[in-house]
Amino acid sequence: MTAPPLPARAGRRRRVGVRGAPWLFVVPALLVYGVVVLYPTAAGGLYAFTDWTGRAGDANFVGLDNFRRLFNTESARSALVNTLTIAAACTIVQTAAGLGLALALNTRLRSRNVLRTLFFASALLPPVIIGFLWQYVLTPTGPLNTALSDVGLGALRQNWLGDGSLALWSVIGVIIWQNAGLTMVIYLAGLQGIPPEVHEAAAIDGAGPWQRFRSVTLPLLLPATTIALSLTLIGSLKLFDQVFAMTGGGPGYATETLSVVMYKEAFVSGEFGYSAAIALVLTMIVFAFAMIQLRTLRRFEVDS
Amino acid sequence: MSGGPLSRGLLGGGLLGARRGRGPRAVLGELAMIAVGVLFAFPFYVFLSISLKTPDEVAADPLGPPSGLRLDNYTTAWREAELGQALFNSTVVAAISVALLIALGSLAAYTIARRAGRLSYTTYVLFLLGIMIPLQLGMVPLYQLMRDADLLQTYTSLIIFNVGTQLPMTVFLYAGFTRALPREYEEAAYVDGAGTLRTFLGIVFPLLRPVTGTVVIISSINVWNEFLTPLLYVGGSSQQTLPVAIFAFRGEFSTNWGVIFAGMVLAILPILLVYFLLQKSIIKGFASGLKG
Question: Does A118 contact B193 at a Cβ distance shorter than 8 Å?
Fold first, then answer.
């Protein structure tokens, strides 16, 4: 307040040039993010190369031993295969289902508001509770098998979660049931961003419904597709809650995912180093897929 | 209304109906979608009907409707699962986490969006990495950090965890939105002599309201549903959140599905209630937030 007028004005003018926003504003967020995500991730990456079991000062560098062990252990190998299977199946089916629901509910159906509400509701509920719900629905004498018998499809009765060759697909079905509504909402947002004139113009040019969908709607939905695919892919690679609640990884190793194995190794067996190695492999997979996906979709976007 | 029921029946259902685009094909499409909806809703029906049945009823017919509106399961679940406490814990943790997220995230994104140059870009990318990084890799080191800081069994551990893990998405949403805001208002404020913090609070933050709504919706849902970390940090304590309480409760009543489902219905009721009340803005917020 007591400063002479001239320097004060100069100071003010400089600030306008910089356009405000000091670095200090980033510090609190970066601090919390660093403590919760960056530091632990880096530390975990280092532990992956040790035989640490959680006791202080007991970590020895073991090179790639943990990774060799991962690829030579049946439970870890099947977890790797299961994780990739879940990711592939969920990404393809859930995206297709979400797109289908969005297209159907973007029309003038009387029931569309009720159906939108219904389809999206499951996506908001805690995954662990959804896991328990389906664990019961899928028991051998449970509601699904009873319903199949009641409508004359008794031949389709299965031990959905107890049969090793079927359990993984049951889990995949549940994941898709829970999250298809989320994909639908993303696509509905994409569809509503397409101006109706575009379709009218294409129709005047003589394009049929299928052609309009292929050459007009689908390319314009590419941004929505990028987001839907990324979210589904990353989410399904990290899958934990539903599997943990529904099957705990069983029967045998049939539904084990990398996340479940690494939880068990760390917090049940105390094999922290090995568990970190599994997590590092999962991280590599997530990054690899995310990169491939970004590149592929960007090429598409240029083409269309 | 103008034509009366007779003419509507004759004309509306017949020729005119088809011309209005509600012909047989539209009706068929509608029926097909309703069928899909019924199939989709089947687990929800199981959820509710089982929660009203006795163990004998469940065993005899898992599918039939309950014999009446018996609420014994609900009273048992409420008493045994300590859901009231868990509900309170979840609410406190979610509210503080989301408030901090908004404060830290919007401030950080403001600088990232308004500063040009390499440092700003690097900071942004650093935050974006967090959307991809599987938290599992840092799970054990973070657990030890919390243990060494004596924060296990406290709300604080969960709040710090939630803020740290939700910041990437929050910064991403805020930065995208801030970039699209015109700078003229801020410049005018500076010329008038307002400091950066005052400009941010008085001018920028109010303009960010739509994206703040999106952040509130997306992060509350994520925080509320988080399971594994709360299980590790506060499991078994009086600080445990709803998913953790339900997990313990499920173990305790391993075979009494009626009581288990009653507890789970009670646990999801608040979420569903909020969803039905605010569904338009929730769906819109989700969609626009994801559009980026």
Answer: no
